[in-house]
Design brief:
140 residues, mainly alpha, YutG-like, YutG/PgpA, phosphatidylglycerophosphatase activity
Amino acid sequence: MAKEGINLKDLINTALEMYIPHPKLGTKEEMARKLREEFKKTFQDVNVCALVIAGLYLEEAGKKGLIPGLSREEYRKDPVHLIADELLGIQIAQYIAGSRALFEFERFDKKKPGILKGLPPVMDDVIGGLIAGVLVKVCS
């Protein structure tokens, strides 16, 4: 993920952009600490890592024009008929935090806060799913 310019600080800051403070969950500073801990745990999960790696490979294939039926130029435009990226993001979010994470993923996918707005077509959804899942898990 570092190759794509993604680091833990950016993941936390992006999550905090969408976090709605709640007295039982603490301040943004307390939430940042909880998010850091949960991201570190999540990065130890082989299945999350495998799904993120799948997203990285799909991103590379798209950039090189290696996805059948999708040119490199078309890929860069994030075409609406390419839904594999959303499916990966949804699965990552739901794997981490269950069904509620699907709704959080949708919020992230529509708003594209923080680092998401600058990421390429697949990685914005993969990282959006990762952040959504971790945020829901911490808030649950």
